[in-house]
Fold this protein.
Amino acid sequence: MEATPLDERKQQILKAVISDYTVTGVPVGSQVLAAKYFIALSSATIRNELADLVGTGYLQQPHTSAGRVPTDRGYRYFVDFLMDPEAASPTVRRTVKQAFETAPRSVEGILEKAAMVLAQITENVSLVTAPETSEARIKHIDLVSLESQSVLIILVLEGNLIKQTVIRLDRATSQDDLSRMAAMLNRKVKGQTADELLSRLSQLGPDRDEQRQILERVIESISTHQAQRQSVVLHDGVRNLLRHPEFVEVNRLEELLELLEQGAQLAGILQQVAFDKDVEIIIGRENTSSGLRECSLVLTTYKMDERVRGTIGVIGPTRMHYGQVVARVRLVSQATSELLGPLGN
Amino acid sequence: MEATPLDERKQQILKAVISDYTVTGVPVGSQVLAAKYFIALSSATIRNELADLVGTGYLQQPHTSAGRVPTDRGYRYFVDFLMDPEAASPTVRRTVKQAFETAPRSVEGILEKAAMVLAQITENVSLVTAPETSEARIKHIDLVSLESQSVLIILVLEGNLIKQTVIRLDRATSQDDLSRMAAMLNRKVKGQTADELLSRLSQLGPDRDEQRQILERVIESISTHQAQRQSVVLHDGVRNLLRHPEFVEVNRLEELLELLEQGAQLAGILQQVAFDKDVEIIIGRENTSSGLRECSLVLTTYKMDERVRGTIGVIGPTRMHYGQVVARVRLVSQATSELLGPLGN
DNA sequence: ATTGGCAGTCTCGATCCGCGAGTGCTAACT
DNA sequence: AGTTAGCACTCGCGGATCGAGACTGCCAAT
């Protein structure tokens, strides 16, 4: 099972097997391959090659006397070396464009729309993480007096991302005082990131106790990844999975749904997507989660500007049309980034 | 099929059939009934009664020589007249309490937690609508300058519910001017509802054009039900459905998922839940949506105070333990209301 | 009105069988 | 040495068959 380099013909055969299997979902045999893809060769020759590919672990057969099916390793080789680059069709581009036209001009709205349209055009489950805000610049702070000593802190970040948190002060403070304090804070913190704020916190004199309390809470609020909602990962399109024959057995679906609905574990996986790479593909058992044993992830990132970013992608059966999905994930990621960009100012 | 009043014994038999079927999921026959529930009677007698109940439409048999299964009509009679009131068990109460202890102190966070725990304790899909805010009082307004003539309006309503919207003014306005305007607006609108605001809008002189623009947008923002997110209905626990044998056929699930994931149609149904009634139950084909043909809804409302309310409930197979589900929906609704209450001040 | 008895109905699961698809091997061929 | 035709063999799948079991409806007796 060592890294066997494949000669040209074996590559072509592997590619043909994956193409065919992706479409039909049925193990593909030597005769079909000879007829559809390799007219110059006989089925016997192909049989020999197939046997080799099984031996080196790129293909497997469900049982003796059945056709061949790609293994995770086969898919990996395919996406790394064999896959033809595809471009999103005009129809798909139009779908995406139209979807975003009706999106509300808020970060949450746009991300939700992105999840929706990505699920639609890939016919899989889409995943979108909330943007990472620890390096986002603060645009505005407001303080609202609640009952007695409670204060509602409202924070506007780049991209009009709003965070709120409630703080309890040591003494009662009127709304007028709070407004004054907010005005002062605004002058001080505007345009800073949470990190910058943290380093400047120590410069405050000990007499500014309330300001310090508030700022500490502000930093905390930015750093905790979750916004006002608990779920860190948006998803859409679970209904699409039901159309794939690999999910007729419900127990597979159940594990997957659990993963999606609690989100925490998934968030961990998505966070590890490298920001520098283009599109990252994780196939089958390459996933650590057992629920994703028979699934693949196609992930990339979106940006709001250089400092605020998140992950976007899809999750589907390992038997998916990788070329197409990659193109479409990339398309939606770009469109999302473009749309989020101007919100920043 | 006219409204036949059922005599005492028929009622008891209907009740027994539903009890048994709810637990086993298997059509229940006369012998089982005689042995488990009516030791004084022979199976032959029960057979006669069963035949009557089929004739009047409360029961049906999947095929000749099978046991009986409740019809929608049977369930309806059961929940209206026969169902024993149940109380949530201490274990369940504790689960709910503990879940809410870790909830963030924001409306969204609490509602999400409510959906989560309700799904968990009912082992069905939970539904929670965002609170209806058209009659909520305004607590605070803030205006933030974006690029050139764009202004971000931030609105804090009762319960620290935050709404945001972007407006474009006729002329560029500095943040200082906006802050002054915000202070003035705060004095004017604090404690008012959108409706009250609307009626007072006409009193503004024509010279206050900008204020008018802003206030119009404020009203609109409050009235549109959706907050910053598109989905009006939260849901959780789809994974629970897969455990029910009625959903092993995936196509049923697909219709249901579609309904859940687009939400609009569902929102319509949930909005019609009467606020004065206690718990509303909608059974099988009583639903207008075809996707809910084999599902029941158990719904009630929650309140933040007298003016802000939403719907909360579950959706599951018609074969569910209604008594228990009703008790648990009621429990979570009450707990949610209690938790949301103090947020208001 | 209730009940025991009984014949009849229908589903469900197990078993069996034959078809067809596909393979691996061998021997011949280029 | 690589390729190919031929062939025997394997195995899954779908359909047909069948018997067991679960219930029923009906009838006659209580």
In short: Chain A has 13 helices and ten strands. Chain A has a mean pLDDT of 88.
